[in-house]
Amino acid sequence: MSATGVSFEKSKSWLLVDCGEATQHQLLRADLSPYHLSVICISHLHGDHCYGLPGLLASMAMSGRTDPVYLIAPQAVVQFVMSTLALTQVTLPFDLHTMAIEQTDQFISLEFCYIEIIPLKHRVPSFGFKITEALIPRKLRIKQLHSEGIASGPHYNLLQKGQDVIYQGQRLAANTYAFPSWRPRSVIVCGDNEKPSLLSSYCDDIDMLVHEATFTHPDLMRVGTHTGHSDAKRVAQFAQQYQIPALILTHFSVRYHGEGMLDVLENEARTHFHGNLRLAYDFLVLTVPKQLLSE
């Protein structure tokens, strides 16, 4: 069952990609609180990616959340959720803003993050999500301000907040006199996808790729290449080609369940990818380091 949380330290709000069965139960043991869950992205309509959603929303209602929640998902998933809530007579105390992917712009701007929707290839329409942080403290270019004779005052604070100001009849552009403290961090979290190359135009500036590796390459060749899934070799080669710093593999076939059974997947991926590689497990927490910027 798939569920991946993404959070940034400057906001209590966080984002969830996919919501397989028992997601709400696992969240009871995680550091991320459903009360602060603001955005839910569902990659496709298969049950291992969305069956946990009605229960999670009901639990969020019981937690007392009143702030709006955004659901970004295929139209069929939106219909499934709304029908289930109606049939079970669940009344949400918060506004659920549903955004059907088929009718939504590929770029969505929210308070704490930006989301790009990436079409993938699976047996049904499937999507990935590029999530980029938005709330980054800004630093003033103090030397430049002083060199131009711009004395300190309330306008400094406004510039630092990203607002243009008028100073002694002159317009000061915030982007000229202030800059982000660090480079925005980005991660791509994918649904099921048999063609990693579809991510090519989105990978130049990402810090981490979360992608399924359902099979090893030899096993995929045996079961057929059009399963709608990827193998560890193909994903690792792609991540190496685009010099992605961190690769997280998920969504493993049940044939690899059991002690030591995932080693063959990890070994195959490490042969082709030389960055930070992890195989996902429940409650895995990873931190993307900041790349600080200077004047």
TrEMBL record:
Active-site feature positions: D48 (proton acceptor)
Pfam families, per database record: Anti-Pycsar_Apyc1
Matches recorded under Gene3D superfamilies: Ribonuclease Z/Hydroxyacylglutathione hydrolase-like (3.60.15.10)
Cofactor(s) required for function per UniProt: Zn(2+)
List of residues binding Zn(2+) 2: D48, H49, D192, H251
Enzyme Commission number(s) of this protein: 3.1.26.11
Top EC category: hydrolase
SUPFAM superfamilies in alphabetical order: Metallo-hydrolase/oxidoreductase
Keyword Hydrolase: yes
Keywords (A to Z) from UniProt: Endonuclease, Hydrolase, Metal-binding, Nuclease, tRNA processing, Zinc
InterPro entries (alphabetical): RibonucZ/Hydroxyglut_hydro, RNase_Z/BN
Keyword Repeat: no
A GO molecular-function annotation: zinc ion binding
Reactions performed catalytically: Endonucleolytic cleavage of RNA, removing extra 3' nucleotides from tRNA precursor, generating 3' termini of tRNAs. A 3'-hydroxy group is left at the tRNA terminus and a 5'-phosphoryl group is left at the trailer molecule
Residues involved in Zn(2+) 1 binding: H44, H46, H122, D192
Cofactor note: Binds 2 Zn(2+) ions.
Alphabetical list of CDD domains matching this protein: RNaseZ_ZiPD-like_MBL-fold (cd07717)
Subunit architecture: Homodimer.
Name used for this protein in its record: Ribonuclease Z
Gene name per UniProt: rnz
